Amino acid sequence: MSANRDPHLADTFAEAGRKVGQALSDLLDSIQPAFDAMASAANRPEVQSVLGRAERLLRRRPCLCFCSKAHPEDQSICEMFDAVVTGQHNSDLLGDVGIPLCAPCAAARAAHEFASAR
Ligand SMILES: [Zn+2]
Ligand SMILES: [Zn+2]
After folding, report:
1. Which residues of the chain have pLDDT under 70?
2. If you measure from the C-alpha of residue 93 to the centroid of ligand 2, how many angstroms do you get, rounded to a whole number?
3. Which numbered ligand comes closest to the C-alpha of 100?
């Protein structure tokens, strides 16, 4: 019976296998760029800078200056999420309490206090 075996059967299997293999490798090729894009997106400078900014923002302290009261002439200078110093806030209720202030607010408060102390 072996003489009647289709001599092309092996080729047919090989061909089928090759096609499946080709289809799989095509599939992987078409997926690969998406993986690469995701992997490289995380390393892109703009993505890094957004992530870094979000991280810095989360680590930041908000400025708790009452701008409209503390320095009414310079209310727009406040860097609301960039408190760098702890200032003294004179509260009638709590006395002197330390509150986080951004640098421009601290300077404006000092100037305002200096101006009003004269
Ligand atoms: Zn302020
Ligand atoms: Zn401020």
Report:
1. 1-5, 57-58, 89-91, 94, 118
2. 22
3. 2
Tell me the per-residue pLDDT of 72-100, one tens digit each, with 9 for 90 and over.
999 999 999 888 888 776 667 767 778 89
Q: How far apart are CA 53 and CA 92, in angstroms?
A: 37
Residues having C-beta closer than 5 Å to ion ligand 2: 63, 65, 78, 102, 105
Measured in Å, residue 66 CA sits from the centre of ligand 1 at 6
Element (H, E) at 34: helix 9-43
Q: Say which residue the tokens 């009647």 belong to.
A: 4
Listed by start position, the domains of the chain span 8-54, 61-117
Q: Enter the pTM of the model.
A: 0.45
